[in-house]
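Lab notebook, page 48
Experiment: co-folding of the full assembly
Goal: obtain a model of how the components sit together before planning crosslinking
Operator: M.T.
Materials (sequences as entered):
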Amino acid sequence: MITYENACRIINRSRGSAVSVTTMTQTKYWNEISEDPDLDIGISNGMSKASSIALGVALGKPETTVLCLDADGSLLMNLGSLATVAGMGPKNMFHFVFNNGIYAITGGQPVPAPGVEYAEVAKACGYSASYRFEDTETFDNNLPKILQSEGPVLIELIVKGEPQTDGVDQTWESNAGMPRQLRALRKRLTGKDDWGAGGPYI
Amino acid sequence: MINGILHPKNVIDQLVRQKVSHYVTLPDSETAHMYEALMAEPSITVVPVAREGEAIPVAAGLFIAGQNPVISIQNAGFYEAGDALRGLALGIGLPLVMFIGYRGHNRKGDTPDSAAAFLEPYLHLWRVDYFVIESDDDLERVPLAFERAAATNQPFAVAIGTEYAKEGVE
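Observation: model returned without errors.
Model output:
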């Protein structure tokens, strides 16, 4: 079984200048490992919509690789997005699904159907390719070649669940993090610092 | 629905003037002719979504990437998209024009369609500014929607209160 930390380290090694869109536990580990935070957005307050935001970025910047670090519980909540992504067919989108079978953020309750094989679902929806990895070495050996292929590609990772017991950080400052990241990424992608303050947090 | 005539081409002309790049949508019965007309407009990419809740985050991603999207979904689907509106439009300060199909609108208030009855109270609940378009005569308001969204960094709704006409119908 793969750990979050190892998965994020492996992805980061092959990242290049890709944009990353993360959510939930992946964000926690990715933030510790990423070397280019201006290209990162961690989706919170989003109820499972990382794949949809990643699709928008991928369609809007087709020359930029977009990595979405999604999770099984999140994707179940937005499963139709697999069909939406497949329908648009972004060649620059690589959709990782960290499958631990539980809702880690809320303490480790099982997802409704822990046996769903997301790589198979993505394949049936029409992704260009999909893969399922259960061990670190095989994933590490195959990822560089996968990222050279044409998307959309879904990469399912069977990971060891890490239930959290310390709750979710909900402060004015913590909730300002995502709007700030989104503006930093737009500035990085467009070269324009033109998205001013708005909303309750910034 | 009321009896105003709203031609898709006239709405598309407004979108082109605003340099809209992407039209993120889940089609509904009222907007069927708009969808057909948009497929013939080369400057706007139609992005069909599987569920209305995807529309706002897809548009947010496009905006982050420097594009100029709008969304078009029906009022019933707009309710389904409520949490995306909260977290990924209002919460991040997204300047997004949202075309919302006003299914059941009859201007009399006593509509039997709850999808219509709740739309304006729902927009008030979220503190989303809006106006209603019922015919081609109302289209001069469309640029104001884009101005308001940009000036406030907030979403702005344009409720479509009539069915789009088939091209050629006068």
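Interpretation: The radius of gyration of chain A is 16 Å.
Next step: discuss with group before ordering constructs.
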